[in-house]
Amino acid sequence: MKQISAIRALGALAQETRLDIFRLLVQHGPEGLAAGEIAARLRLPAPTLSFHLNQLRFAGLVTSHRRSRSIIYAANYQTMGDLLGYLTQNCCGGRPELCAPVLPAAACGPGQLLASKHKRRVSP
Amino acid sequence: MKQISAIRALGALAQETRLDIFRLLVQHGPEGLAAGEIAARLRLPAPTLSFHLNQLRFAGLVTSHRRSRSIIYAANYQTMGDLLGYLTQNCCGGRPELCAPVLPAAACGPGQLLASKHKRRVSP
DNA sequence: ACATTAGTTTGATAATTCCAGAGATATGAA
DNA sequence: TTCATATCTCTGGAATTATCAAACTAATGT
Q: Check: CATH 3.40.50.300 for A1-97+106-124?
């Protein structure tokens, strides 16, 4: 992930309403949630929600598609993973164990490790 | 880490100048760097740098202490680790493996990853 | 065709953030 | 003390971001 993308993602999440929206979407997994449902749960006026969803989409953190009258939004785990990778590599001085000791061991287990499309570099 | 702290940290990092400052400090480890040195390396006017350092300090991402005439700033790895933990737990739906697969395996193993001055590739 | 439902866009206003200049403060040297 | 160095704070204006009412667009049902 490039710095500019990381900044966009960080900026998108650095706002209470958007962080709430994103967390809600993450909780609902790949099936996502209709915009109206998000608005109802978070008590947000439709235009305000629409504004924030656009920011999240611009940052690549959510995807959307229409289903009948509703527009379904879902969290984009790939971007979130890329952001975590960027922060770990660029903001932990190449010593991830200093900054990421909290990760559950599951993240390290054998199977799960991957499938990332791009090779990743460890910063010097 | 509370949501408000996470938002402050995200907001602090969501700005090019500050992300540059933070990355520079991370690269220089616990010894830190004097404000003047940061200003020189990043070509920043002193007031601008001071403004951003204050934001980073408010977010808990850097610490500072005076040493003679200089004020030394250093990255606070603890806060960075807390932020990564918050994001992993709250933005990955309790499925960290979905979002954190990019971590070099070494982060989980016994040490060693580090200290390489050369860029290194981790096979996916 | 018309009404209904679901979202978006527009636009005005309020709040916040960014950043450079001028001046203030703290430390060390002569 | 006086001077030079290093950094900070205060200030204010420009730019950006957040909010939400009103108007608009798209899909569906009658």
A: no
